[in-house]
Write a structure and sequence with these properties.
Blueprint: E1 3-7, H1 11-22, E2 27-31, H2 37-52, E3 57-61, E4 72-75, H3 91-108, E5 113-116, H4 121-132, E6 139-141, H5 144-159, E7 166-167, E8 170-171, E9 179-180, E10 186-187, E11 190-191, H6 198-209, H7 211-219, H8 226-240, E12 245-254, E13 260-271, E14 274-278, H9 285-305
Parallel strand pairs: 1-2, 1-4, 2-3, 4-5, 5-6
Antiparallel strand pairs: 7-10, 8-9, 10-11, 12-13, 13-14
């Protein structure tokens, strides 16, 4: 029996719950502080089950006791980013929420693997790790899958090819200083620089870095949710099914890439134990310089976290 609990029944959380149900996870629970919202959305999803053909049991609750026995927790709760709002503007409110969620996880399912989606991502990961005291392999930030997916789609759109044939890797903090690795991008196994010029690639890199903000500008009162939800569910599936996928995730580093005691997006092996290995790849001087800048941005966030 597999059980995944989603903390937060907003756009990201509810969408993730539906994607999980369609994967036929045995039990999906949504927990939210707003009375009736997780219950109503769960009932709506179950009424879609005969049409969509899934057999998962989806429930909603305002009581964290409902998460007991969860294999994976997907933490989405928090206020969304609004136009003109920097990710760090979210920090104070979302850290408070994350600390409360961490406390409840330790009460009810301390062995669960925690996938953090709330922003500012890398800082919230640190807050959750500190608040739970769990081994660092159990706290995983969802960022690299999403950022990589955006890069992949932009490449596919430009070339007029199917997105599934595009591979890409994005490292660094989940913000405007992220580091899309151009030389690791390919389409059907063909290196990207064989298919488009460097100027075009740089345009796509820039768009990837601000991909979340682009959606915020359109929505005006919210932020992206389909792709973040899909990305978190792919990570949950790799853990639940012990797929050991190599993906980019925000992981706690202990000397890897020359950084210590910080969450950062890097390639990892994701399996039943959570982060089972951090993969170190050789970076060019240009890539390392860009990654250093991304780390500086995350460190600034950790400094702010220390004041809360």
């Amino acid at each position: 029996m597999s059980k995944v609990s989603v903390i937060g029944a907003g756009q990201v959380g509810a969408t993730a719950a539906l994607y999980l149900a369609q994967m036929d996870i045995d039990e999906v629970v949504m927990v939210d502080v707003v009375e009736g919202v997780p219950q109503g959305k769960a009932l709506d999803m179950m009424e879609a089950a005969p049409v969509l053909g899934f057999n998962a049991k989806v429930t909603g609750s305002n009581d964290y006791a409902a998460i007991e026995g969860s294999d994976v927790i997907i933490h989405t709760a928090g206020i969304p980013r609004k136009p003109g709002m920097d990710r760090m503007d979210l920090l104070k409110t979302n850290v408070g929420i994350a600390r409360n969620v961490a406390s409840e996880i330790m009460k009810h399912c301390p062995s669960a693997k925690i996938i953090v989606v709330a922003n500012p991502l890398d800082i919230i990961c640190m807050a959750v790790l500190r608040a739970t005291g769990l081994p660092s392999n159990q706290v995983i930030g969802q960022a690299g899958v999403l950022d990589g997916a955006r890069f992949r789609y932009f490449i596919a759109e430009k070339l007029g090819v199917t997105p599934g044939d595009v591979t890409a890797m994005v490292l660094g903090g989940h913000g405007d200083q992220m580091v899309p690795l151009k030389r690791f991008a390919s389409v059907g196994g063909i290196p990207l620089d064989n298919l488009m010029d460097n100027g075009t690639i740089e345009q796509l890199v820039a768009r990837t870095r601000t991909g979340g903000g682009e959606i915020v500008k359109y929505l005006k009162t919210g932020s992206a949710f389909y792709a973040p939800a899909a990305s978190s569910v792919q990570m949950a599936e790799s853990i639940l099914k012990d797929k050991k996928r190599i993906i980019a995730a925000s992981a706690y580093l202990n000397g890897e890439y020359g950084y210590d005691s910080i969450f950062l997006g890097v390639p990892v092996v994701l399996g039943k134990e959570g982060i089972e290995k951090i993969i170190e790849i050789d970076l060019t001087s240009e890539e390392k310089t860009a990654l250093d800048k991304s780390v500086d941005a995350v460190k600034d966030g950790v400094t702010q976290l220390d004041t809360i």
